[in-house]
Amino acid sequence: MEDLRKFNEFNTVALLLHGELTDKRNLGKIDDLLSMIHAAGYLAGLATHRPFSTLNWLLKADLDIDLTMVPFNGLGMFMDAEPNEVAELIRRLGKPVIGKKILGAGRIEPKDAINFVIQSKCIDFIALDVASERG
C-alpha cells in the first residue's frame, strides 16, 4: 500500500491494472488489487488488450472499477472484434474509457483517427503514443 501512495507526489488521480493481468480474468486477484488502489485514494481501472472479450466479462463480473482503457480504432487493429461491437460494449459498461492504439500503429492519420473516436461517441479520453521518430 505504501508503494501506491508514492504516486501522490506526481498528482496521480487513477491507477489502472495492465492488460496482461486484466486479460487473465482472475476475479479474486483483480478485485484485491482494485481494492488496494481504492484504499490508497485513487480511482481504479483496468486496461485490456482484448476489449470485446474483456468488456463482456466485465459486464458480468462484480468489480468496483472507475474507468477502463481499451484499444480502439477504425481499422479494428489490436482489437478482438469490429469497432462497432466494442463501442456497444463500452456504452453498456457505462464507465469512462480511455482509447489507446487509436492510430493503428501509424496506419491511420491522426486527424482521421481522432475524428473516428469523436464520432464513435463512446471514448472519453485518448492516449496517443509514438513508436518511431520517422515523420
Description:
This protein is an alpha/beta fold and 135 residues long. It has one domain (2-126). Helix content is 39%, strand content 15%. It contains 6 helices and 5 strands; from the N terminus they run αβααβαβαβαβ. The protein has helices at residues 2-5, 19-22, 27-39, 51-60, 83-93, 110-120; strands spanning 14-17, 43-47, 67-71, 97-100, 125-126. It has a 5-stranded parallel beta sheet with strand order 1-2-3-4-5. Strand 3 (67-71), helix 5 and strand 4 form a beta-alpha-beta unit. Helix 4 packs parallel to helix 5 (83-93). The longest helix is centred in the N-terminal third of the chain and has 13 residues, at 27-39. It is globular and about 40 Å long. The model has no long low-confidence stretch (mean pLDDT 94).
Question: Notable features of this structure?
Answer:
about 140 residues; alpha/beta; globular
* Model regions low in confidence, pLDDT < 50 over at least 5 residues: none
The number of distinct β-strands equals: 5
Give me the secondary-structure category.
alpha/beta
Beta-strand residue percentage: 5-15%
- Give the termini distance in whole angstroms: 42 Å
Order of helices and strands: HEHHEHEHEHE
What share of the residues lie within helices? 25-40%
Main β sheet profile: 5 strands, parallel
Count the domains: 1
Average pLDDT figure: 94
Number of helices: 6
**What shape does the CA trace take?**
globular
Radius of gyration: 15 Å
Strand order of the largest sheet: 1-2-3-4-5
SSE blueprint and pairings:
Elements: H1 2-5, E1 14-17, H2 19-22, H3 27-39, E2 43-47, H4 51-60, E3 67-71, H5 83-93, E4 97-100, H6 110-120, E5 125-126
Parallel strand pairs: 1-2, 2-3, 3-4, 4-5
Helix pairs in contact: 4-5
